[in-house]
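User: quick one, fold this
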Amino acid sequence: MVARAARPLAPTATGWRWAVLGMLCGVLVTLALFAPARWLAQSLKDATSGRLVLVNPRGTVWNGSAGVVFASGQGGAESISLPGLLDWQLRPAWGGVAAALTLPCCAPQPLHFKALPHTDGLQLDWQDGQSRWPAALLSGFGAPWNTLKPDGVLDISTQAFSMRWNGPQLALAGRATLAATDISSSLSTLKPMGSYRLTLEGGAQPTLLLATREGSLQLSGSGRWNGRALRFDGEASAAPGREDALSNLLNIIGRRDGARSLITLG
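Assistant:
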């Protein structure tokens, strides 16, 4: 008798399902690892309504670089570009993503934070750090900065600072300090007008304190963050002998009350 040649077994339905599942998993892993940087750029643009734009992004979502533009919203007339490029590295971390941002123009060391998504939103925990920014970038945020057109230097430092979004509510913890040095404005011929300190203290009722370090334009005030908006009350005045040089600016930044200008936000 002649033995019949064995025929290969046809794959079962279960085998096909596992093969398709494996292929899909491979595609998903590939997309996750090599997702282009432009996806991150588009996500940031959408999330900030066009106020933060990554220009000409290169690389991947996890390792990339791009130019940075601060703009006053979608189609905003004002936009400010930072010199140089931003380089970023994102890495999976327990419960979220750890990020390192390298900005040679503005930070001597990379800025580190951890993003922790949760049921109702997102939490950003910032590692203590320092950075220096041109005050001119504020013009990119629209009114009133695009009218004031400030110039000078902004030094920002953080201590155990975190931001937690619970739906529309934003909770703040830790401390952030902004030291504004040699600030001037297109609305005054006096350059510089002064140097100032703004301190944000987080907690159950976050507070904001504004004080003048030195200068001809005297600024002071305090405010509270209620989770959705800032309520701030302050005042501005000119040092003796500087009233004429600062009169136009005082008329614009607040409501005049004699020699003072009262500033109310929220």
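User: anything notable?
Assistant: The CA atoms of residues 184 and 245 lie 12 Å apart.
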